Every structure is written in C-alpha cells, then in structure tokens.
Amino acid sequence: MSLRHAVLGLLALRGEASGYDLLQIFKESLDNVWPATQSQLYTELGKLTQAQLVTLVAAGGRGRKGYALTDAGRAELGHWLLEEPPTALRRNDLLLRLFFLGLVPPEQAQAFLHARAHAAAALHQDLRQLRQTLADEHGPLAEYGRLALEWGLRFSVMQRDWAEWAADQLRGTSPPPRESPRPARVRERRPHPRPARISANNN
To answer: Could you read off the pLDDT of 8-18 as tens digits, one per residue?
Structure first.
C-alpha cells in the first residue's frame, strides 16, 4: 500500500474531497494502518494532479480545493486493489533485536520482552475502544475498516502472548555461579613397612 493509493481510494469513496477532508479521514481511520502528515498528503495530491490521476473540480474560499478521481485514477486504483500483490514486509526491527538479546543479561532481555507484551496489551485496549466508537458507523469505509480493525485486535493479542511466552523461555538461562576452586588435597605418603629381618639364630 502507498499514500498514493490511499488518496485514490478515499476519493473513490467520497467522490470529491479537499486536502483537509482527506486529512481528517486519515486521522479517524487510516492513521492506524498508514499514517500521513498534512505536508505529505498535500504533496501527494500535487503529484496525483500532475499525473492526471485526480483533477481539481472546485475551488472555494480560504484556498479550499476539491479533488476528484479521473478515469485514469480509477483504473490505477483498480489495478493496485486487485492485480498488484501486497508488499511483503520482511524487515522487522523487533525480530532483528531478538537475535542479539543474548548480548545483554537475561533479566534485561526479559524486561524488554515484558515491555513489548505491555505495549501490545495497551494497543489491544485502544483498538477495543475504537471498535466501540465505530459500532454505529456505516458505509463501505466503516464496514471494511472493521475487518482491518479485527486484524489489529487479533494481531495485538498474538504479539502479547508471544512476548510473554518468549520472556518465559528465558527463565533459568542465567549461567550458574562459578564456584571458587577448592585447594587440591595433598595426599599423605605413608612409609612402606620394611620387611622383617630374619636372623640366622632363628633356625
């Protein structure tokens, strides 16, 4: 997914919208999956206009500009939506760190994983509240957005459970304390008994 296609998709749903309108929709819904700043959004609208994927359809007071999809923009959106395979995200900062957690004491590695579990639990709680907020929302963006929200709910639970499991795996991995070497015991040498001398007078 890219910001370009997010803008095309929102314009396809809205029919016509200004940059400000699109920014508010991002903050209310898409921000959880593809955040965008105001400067990024307005820059992308300029690029889409130059590429003739959107067109300026209205200009109001205070510099408001309304944008809409062109036929080329709708075709580009359909191609991305159904024909272009989703990008596989192979880079993961969290999993990369796991390979090197053995460089720190086990208790610090456990604390790191517990923090990840706490963050995932907090995210899950935030998404649950968002689900309640969107319960009365209708329309394609809300209906399909709830499917994306459910993915986030399930993924956050998986992250929490995995982090707790991983922290538990590190229990008992501390090396046992090294005992100070004991002094070697010196074995006493006992004198060997001398054989009895046989006197010639014993005959």
So the answer is: 999 998 888 88
